[in-house]
Design goal:
The protein has one domain. The chain contains 4 helices and 2 strands. Helices cover 43% and strands 13% of the residues. It is elongated and about 55 Å long. The chain is an alpha+beta fold and 90 residues long.
Length: 90
């Protein structure tokens, strides 16, 4: 289990805060990156938006590979080849 980073930020007049450097580093955030805020009861979870989107996609896609009969890396490569051939034929 990782050790949590605990830090503070001041809320400015327009509701803006500056994320502490340690938090930005942990979330791999760079200038211009977007974050997702999830409010649950009296706490807010802040996530890198790209990571959040990937987690949601993984959740939605869970079990779909099995339904499609994809079990190995070779199955994935075959599917990619089939799709590329189909696209080239359009």
């Amino acid at each position: 289990m990782s050790v949590p980073i605990v830090d503070n930020a001041k809320v400015m007049s327009k509701g803006q805060i500056t994320l502490p450097k340690d938090i930005r580093s942990k979330l791999r955030l760079a200038n211009g990156d977007r974050v997702t805020l999830i409010c649950e009861d009296d706490r807010v979870i802040l996530m890198n938006s790209a990571v959040y989107a990937m987690k949601m996609l993984q959740k939605e896609m869970k079990g779909e590979a099995e339904k499609a009969g994809i079990q190995t890396d070779d199955d994935v490569m075959d599917l990619v080849k089939d799709i590329r051939t189909e696209i080239e034929g359009l």
